[in-house]
UniProtKB/TrEMBL annotation:
Gene3D superfamilies: 3.40.1190.20
Lineage: Bacteria, Pseudomonadati, Bacteroidota, Bacteroidia, Bacteroidales
Gene field: nnrD
Protein residues bound to AMP: K194, G195, P196, V197, T198, G222
Binding site for (6S)-NADPHX: G106, H163, D223
Species of the source: Muribaculaceae bacterium Z82
Family label: Belongs to the NnrD/CARKD family.
PROSITE patterns: YJEF_C_2, YJEF_C_3
Protein name, per record: ADP-dependent (S)-NAD(P)H-hydrate dehydratase
C-alpha cells in the first residue's frame, strides 16, 4: 500500500478526449438510477455533470415526480421512470459501447423500493457502478456487502462516494470511519471519502485531494461529483483514476465558481457549467 501523488499534467493526461471517429455510444453511456419525490433536483445535478464530464449518452431513471424537471434540465438527457428500468439497460451493448451505472443520488432513504433498485443494480450491472447518497446507507447490510463481493469477484469495479457521516455508517461506528483505505478493503470497492481533504483509495493505494474550497459545502455538490465519477467510468477510466480525476476537477470547478460568484453564493447548479474550465485549467498547467 502506498500514497499516490499526481501532477496536474498526469491528471490532464487522464481526461478522456473523444477520438476523431467517435459517436455517442463509443464515448460511453451512463445510466443514472437516481432521485426521489423529495430530492428531485439530485437527478438533474448528477445527470448534467455526466454530460459536462464527457459521457456520450446519459440515461436517467428516476421517480415519476422528477421526470419533468430532469427533461427541462438538459434537452439531450433521456429520462424514464424507475418502473421502466430493464436488465438490458445494465449491460453494455457491445465492447465498443462502454457503460457505467450511477445509483443512489437523491434517494430519500428508508424506502423498500430504493433497496430493490440498488439490489438490481449491484446484482445485474455488468459494468462499473458508482453508489452515492442514501444508497450508501444500505451497503452495511449483509446482502449488499455480499453483492459487492460478487461484483469484485466478477471483475466489475464499484466506486463509493461517502461524506464523513455516510462513512461512519458504513464503518458501523468503528474507529475506521474516516479511513478510506479500510473502507475500500471492507467493501471491496474504490472509496472517494469526501471532505476538506478528499481521500481516494482502492484498499492498496490512496491519494489525497486538497484543492477543495468551502464554497463546495452546499447541498447537491456531492451529486455533481458522483455524476462526474460515473461519466469517467462510462468512458473507460479505471475506478481509482476516475475517483482521483473527478475529485480534482470537482474542486477546480468549485474554485472557478467561487472566483466568478464568491464563495458565499456558489450553488451546486453552478458546478457542471464550470467543468470545462476545470479541464482547461489542468490542460494549461500541463502545457506549461
Amino acid at each position: 500500500m502506498g500514497r499516490v501523488v499526481y501532477t496536474r499534467g498526469e491528471l490532464a493526461a487522464l481526461v478522456p478526449h473523444p477520438a476523431a471517429d467517435a459517436n455517442k455510444y463509443t464515448r460511453g453511456k451512463l445510466v443514472c438510477v437516481v432521485g426521489s419525490a423529495r430530492y428531485t433536483g439530485s437527478a438533474c445535478l448528477c445527470a448534467c455533470a455526466s454530460e459536462r464530464m464527457g459521457a456520450g449518452y446519459t440515461h436517467v431513471f428516476t421517480h415519476p415526480e422528477a421526470l419533468a424537471l430532469v427533461r427541462r434540465a438538459s434537452s439531450s438527457l433521456v429520462a424514464q421512470p424507475f418502473g421502466e428500468l430493464e436488465d438490458a439497460h445494465l449491460s453494455p451493448r457491445s465492447p465498443s459501447h462502454p457503460l457505467a451505472v450511477l445509483a443512489g443520488c437523491g434517494f430519500q432513504g428508508g424506502d423498500s423500493d430504493e433497496a430493490l433498485l440498488l439490489g438490481r443494480v449491484l446484482d445485474g450491472a455488468c459494468c462499473p457502478v458508482c453508489v452515492d447518497g442514501s444508497a450508501l446507507g444500505l451497503l452495511a447490510e449483509r446482502r449488499f456487502r455480499e453483492a459487492l463481493a460478487r461484483r469484485a469477484e466478477r471483475g466489475f469495479a464499484t466506486v463509493l462516494t461517502p461524506h464523513g457521516g455516510e462513512a461512519a455508517r458504513l464503518a458501523e461506528g468503528a474507529s475506521v470511519a474516516a479511513d478510506a483505505v479500510a473502507l475500500a478493503r471492507s467493501y471491496r470497492s474504490v472509496v472517494v471519502l469526501k471532505g476538506p481533504v478528499t481521500c481516494v483509495s482502492d484498499g492498496e493505494r490512496f491519494a489525497n485531494m486538497d484543492q477543495g474550497t468551502p464554497a463546495l459545502a452546499k447541498a447537491g455538490t456531492g451529486d455533481v461529483l458522483a455524476g462526474m465519477v460515473g461519466a469517467l467510468l462510462a468512458q473507460g477510466l479505471g475506478a481509482f483514476e476516475a475517483g482521483v480525476l473527478a475529485a480534482t476537477l470537482h474542486a477546480l470547478a468549485g474554485q472557478a465558481a467561487a472566483a466568478d460568484l464568491g464563495a458565499v453564493s456558489v450553488t451546486a447548479d453552478d458546478l457542471p457549467l464550470r467543468i470545462p474550465q476545470a479541464i482547461t485549467a489542468l490542460g494549461t498547467a500541463f502545457r506549461a
